[in-house]
């Protein structure tokens, strides 16, 4: 980070005292959303530079990359990403135009459409995964302080136990 930029850790954090209106679980969730949103902002530029796709299109690619074989139905992608189907249809069309995904009808279901990565997309993701992972690793400590870790452990107590064992 350039010396002229203020380090996010030097900025005042979100108020986290327990005296507000929100219950602990909702307050914890909001802290985590703020931290992940900040990391996502840093990741957007790297995604655009390395893959030349939008962040939302990148999320689709990541979902498809985690499928051992074949692809996913578009309705399932929309569910997993919490996106309206119409918006997803546009994103898939952009990815298809870029040669990164294929679409095909699901056998036995006229309305079903399955989306899968192309070899080009697999190659690009493989090449970009190092810089993308490094961006996340560098950004997380800037935005994920003790309050956010405590919030995460409060929401997922088993994670706190595993962390203590390691």
From TrEMBL:
<dbReference type="InterPro" id="IPR000835">
    <property type="entry name" value="HTH_MarR-typ"/>
</dbReference>
<dbReference type="InterPro" id="IPR036388">
    <property type="entry name" value="WH-like_DNA-bd_sf"/>
</dbReference>
<dbReference type="InterPro" id="IPR036390">
    <property type="entry name" value="WH_DNA-bd_sf"/>
</dbReference>
<protein>
    <recommendedName>
        <fullName>HTH marR-type domain-containing protein</fullName>
    </recommendedName>
</protein>
<feature type="domain" description="HTH marR-type">
    <location>
        <begin position="25"/>
        <end position="161"/>
    </location>
</feature>
<dbReference type="InterPro" id="IPR039422">
    <property type="entry name" value="MarR/SlyA-like"/>
</dbReference>
